[in-house]
Amino acid sequence: MALIIFTLRLAIGILLFPMFLLNLLGLWNQICKKWFPYFLRRFTVMYNEQMASKKRELFSNLPEFAGPSGKLSLLEVGCGTGANFKFYPAGCRVTCIDPNPNFEKFLIKSVAENRHLQFERFVVAAGENMQQVADGSMDVVVCTLVLCSVQNQEQILQEVCRVLRPGGAFYFLEHVAAESSTWNYFWQQVLDPAWYLLFDGCNLTRESWKALERARFSKLELQHLQAPLPVELVRPHICGYAVK
């Protein structure tokens, strides 16, 4: 099986040789960082349509984690275009972090469309190093379709725990690896190297639930599901929340 996967990866590599060459020359990342926000803007419209009920269910208890002032301080890591904004409760104070500065103009548009929120600031930084956010300053941290592309899952979860106040919560919704015995997992393995370059570092075969289980949370509510998406490769999902 490993030989078949290698052969198919090689064939795909030949077909996509210009992209792999640009990556070897150090040019692909610059191109991807510029075009990816435009792709994601279109993709998140479709994703929200298919996943709206799941997102409403997931975020339904956000107000329970509001601080003593009654206001909810929320940090979204890997905010992208702000696709989650409409699911947050009114009056929520939102801070956003993303390593790609090209998302900012799309984020500003989403802020304008979601006046029920109190937007705090946009920080250009990786989730593994959120030094601009103070220790214990957040009631909630949200991460959707992000753990698939971060460089170090353990490190980002350590940062999440650092910025959360005691009793705060981390919400997640992520696509993950399919069951290892399925054809879907076979094709995830075949397409993973090309997918990684095409979609700004996204990995198809990550078992992100394992990193969450190892993290320093006092409580973890985690659910596996098959998302109703047109592309089978990204249907396997996990969602839930963890309490510090």
TrEMBL record:
The gene is LOC122224549. Residues 75-172 form the Methyltransferase type domain. It comes from the Eukaryota. The chain crosses the membrane at residues 6-28. This is Thiol methyltransferase 1A. Pfam families: Methyltransf_11 (PF08241). InterPro entries: Methyltransf_11, SAM-dependent_MTases_sf, Thiol_S-MT. Gene3D superfamilies: Vaccinia Virus protein VP39. Keywords: Acetylation, Membrane, Transmembrane, Transmembrane helix. The keyword Metal-binding does not apply. GO terms for molecular function: S-adenosylmethionine-dependent methyltransferase activity. The keyword Transferase does not apply.
